[in-house]
Model the fold of this input.
Amino acid sequence: MQYKRKLKRYILAAVMLVLATYATLFIKDTVDAMNPEKSLPIISVSIGYNPPAVVRAGYTWNFGLKTVRAPYLSAADVPLMTTDCYPGEHIAVDFSAPYDFITLYMAEGLANDDFRQVYNMQTPMEEGVYVFKLVANFKEGDIVYYFAVNVKTQNLQP
Done:
């Protein structure tokens, strides 16, 4: 008889623990959806030893029961600062959360919206100003970033 009573208590405790877990996840998703800018993964980009100024230009993110969409902006709508770098430097991208895949696009000049996909993560070999569009896909959604580089062969500022 006492065995059945203990079993009922254990089952009730397990059910309450599961309900508390679901309630916690629901509350966290609700709070994250109210301020999505602080809940998105943080990006870190470096070109050689120089981190370019990376600008987020839109996202679609799923916060459990709610999907938040920020409008996707074009490169012309985003204020970009160029970062000086050498030709052929490696572009390293890292996020604070695991991503599924990233796609890198490049356009010549700041006023050009004609992006083409880049298959190697390097700066171009020719001098000039280039804008990169980085699309990061996560299981929760996708985020678009832009950054600009000024490829020079000499007279780089430290």
Observations:
- The chain has two domains: 1-34, 41-151.
- Strands lie at 43-47, 55-63, 66-70, 82-85, 91-95, 101-108, 116-118, 128-138, 141-151.
- The longest strand covers residues 128-138.
